[in-house]
Design a protein that fits this description.
The protein folds into two domains: 2-223, Rossmann fold, CATH 3.40.50.360; 228-273, no CATH class. The radius of gyration is 20 Å and the shape is globular. Strands 1, 2, 3, 6, 7 and 8 form a six-stranded parallel beta sheet that branches. The chain is α/β, with parallel strands linked by helices. It is 27% helix and 13% strand.
Length: 273
């Protein structure tokens, strides 16, 4: 199988670098083909601007989404963007390796998403009508692929729980797992998270190594996060969860299939009131 590893850390000798190297070695040993996008080594351009579009007239007001759509359709995107899009289409699984900085991904990785997930490629696809708002959240260009976050975290695990001061990790990662991975169709696997990463000792590394290998072994077999499909009948014409669904859940968890709920819900025109 083909695996793309998108890696965002400025220091090759970091813990993130070690996890990246471990993933490449272990997955290759399992017979998979692995490609790495090392964003810092590539000197990846993180800013989304008019320079992303080869045919954008100089001095013309930039409407980035509109320009992205035209460039993707017309074949006038920058070569670095096209190359990353081709890697995503080649891959059957994607691993994002990064440190949690200020409750999110590093700016260089966010810039990769901003530029690579172009209009017509990762969003703005499919037909809109009735309860259907295009092909997204479980459908789309990248459907049929899996993705997993491998995240190093400086804080302690209790800080990232339901009652922890930093908020539950699933809530912090929701914009990435639901919005970046699931939106264009990829299945999101539960993240591999490593806490107190700046305090990891050499004696603790073997247990981390084995835990990560186990997760890599299940890259194509582990059960993904059960996000609701946008076009599975769960949402009304305003894309609001229909009454009677998500009972007992709160926050972002209402967008997960609850026990006993069918993956495909009855399609009606029911509104949220």
């Amino acid at each position: 199988m083909n695996v793309l590893l998108v890696y965002a850390h400025p220091e090759p000798r970091s813990l993130n670098g070690a996890l990246k190297d471990l993933a490449v070695s272990h997955l290759t040993g399992l017979g998979h083909t692995v490609r790495v996008s090392d964003l810092y080594a590539m000197n990846w351009k993180a800013t989304a601007d008019a320079g992303d579009f080869l045919s954008h007239p100089e001095g013309e007001r930039l409407a980035y989404a509109r320009a992205s759509k035209a460039a993707f359709a017309g074949g006038t995107q920058r070569e670095d963007v096209v190359a990353e899009q081709e890697k995503l289409l080649w891959a059957q699984a994607v691993i994002f390796q990064f440190p949690l900085w200020w409750f999110s991904m590093p700016a260089i990785l966010k810039g990769w998403v901003d530029r690579v997930f172009a209009y017509g490629f990762a969003y703005g696809v499919g037909v809109h009508g009735g309860e259907r708002w295009g092909d997204r959240y479980g459908e789309g260009t990248l459907s049929g692929r899996r993705a997993m976050l491998s995240v190093t975290i400086g804080g302690r695990a209790p800080h990232y729980t339901e009652r922890g001061v930093n908020g539950a990790l699933d809530d912090l990662l929701f914009p990435i797992q639901h919005g970046v991975i699931y939106y264009p169709g990829m299945e999101a696997l539960p993240p591999f998270s490593l806490y107190m990463s700046d305090r990891l000792t050499p004696e603790e590394w073997p247990s981390v190594e084995e835990a990560y290998k186990t997760r890599l072994d299940g890259l194509f077999t582990d059960t993904p996060i059960p996000f609701r499909r946008q076009n599975g009948g769960h949402y009304d014409t305003q894309q609001v969860l229909k009454p009677g669904l998500g009972l007992g859940a709160g926050g972002t968890r209402i967008h997960l299939l609850q026990p006993g709920e069918p993956e495909q819900h009855r399609l009606t025109s029911t509104t949220s009131g």
